[in-house]
Amino acid sequence: MVEELPERWRLPSILTLISQIGQIGPMIFIIGRRFFPNKFTNANAIIVVLSVGAISCFCLAIFWKKTAFVFNESRSIYLYLFSLSLSLLDSLSTITFLPYVGEFFAKEYIIPNYIGESLSSFIPGLLAIIQGVGSPDECLNITSVDNSTLLVTGVKTKFSVSIYFVLMGVLICTSIISFLSINFVSYFKKIRKNNRLEEILESESAKLNKGSTQTVKIMFFISFLGGFTNYGYLPGLMSYSTIPYGGDFMYLAVNITSCGLTIAVLLSIWSYEVSTKRVIFETCIPLFTSTCILIVSVFSPCPPLVNTNWRRAAGYFMVFCWVMTSCMFIRIRCLIATKLEKYGKQKLFLLGVFAIIGQLLGGLLVYILVDVLRLFHDKPKCSPDDYCLRILN
Fold it and tell me: Which letter does DSSP use for residue 69 in this model?
């Protein structure tokens, strides 16, 4: 998509901004729940957003490549529109899925909730691996009277982007059926926890944990930091940090990360109770790798080592940074959620709110830097192999 659509390398940052506009969904939900608590329930919100997500995927399968001329530039308007509706699914899931689990099920189901979330990345990543990376169109310089350049078509993927979106729509439809079963089938209602008993325990827990206010604030700040970094500004830099070393590195970063998230969550099963110091220490790891990604992106399209024999090694290091950043942040989310569960479902709800605020601010920041100020640059199509050396000279 990055190579085919007119936005090229700016596409991830534009889609990041669109996903932040989708944060209006949680705001509407919070206001609606305040005035119509019986209508704006977590269960109803989950059913609506999953349905909208499925419809959006099927529409993207048809319209993702269509463009329109807006503000003196060709833009992928249909992709923007349906990506916005998909972002509503992503943003609302942050403040509805976990509180739903916290409200009706024991804390042992929190990690499975994140396993399901990671599978929503694992399965698309697996499909993308099956689809194949393909290869971009090659440019051959032909010596002639007008020094023209010949564009040669590269190797295509095993199935199209449209088929990929159809498969994603089918996946979300499966999720709808699964959630309807959990919410309405009597078998699952039997394994729900006693809400009255839980309310008494939460009340007693609140009295006993008044001295833990500092811990809760730290967890909220780390949640904000994770949203700001991993779901905010970082996705908009994907192309600038990987493609300079080779298009296959962006493919590897996206798909290995998608598959690695499930492993990261599974490893969190044995970490239900960890200290605050442990959470802070583990947060430093993705902060370091995300800083490396930011530094490389600033120098795009000619980052360090791109003109040396270490180019491939640098590309693999960027893949490592992306995998570590995403996997560590989702692991940290699991650790924080299980740590805050004893404080009640309201704290789990606020945990999602802080993550959304961070995501919103990070997305707005990267859009301003990339699309408004144009501080990041991509490499022109059909540029020579020594493009960076020519710039330096």
Answer: E
CA dihedral (371, 372, 374, 375) in degrees, to 10, reads -110
pLDDT at 12: 76
Q: Are 181 and 165 in contact (CB under 8 A)?
A: no
Peptide bond into 235 cis (omega under 30): no
pLDDT tens readout for residues 280-318: 999 999 999 999 999 999 998 889 988 888 999 999 999
Task: Give Cβ neighbours of residue 221 (< 8 Å, ≥ 6 apart).
Answer: 354
3-state secondary structure of 70: strand
Which of helix, strand or coil describes residue 147? coil
Other Cβ atoms closer than 10 A to 34: 9
Say how far apart CA 109 and CA 107 lie, in whole Å: 5
Distance from C-alpha of 240 to C-alpha of 9, rounded to nearest angstrom = 7
pLDDT in tens, 54-65: 999 999 899 888
Collapsing DSSP to helix, strand or coil, 140 comes out as strand
**What b/e sequence results for 304-328 when a residue is b if at least 16 CB atoms lie within 10 Å of its CB, and e otherwise?**
ebbeeeebeebbebbbebbbbbbbb
As a whole number of angstroms, the distance between CA 110 and CA 355 comes to 17
CA dist 3 and 135 (Å) reads 10
Which among 223, 245, 167, 230 is positioned nearest to 362, based on CA atoms?
230
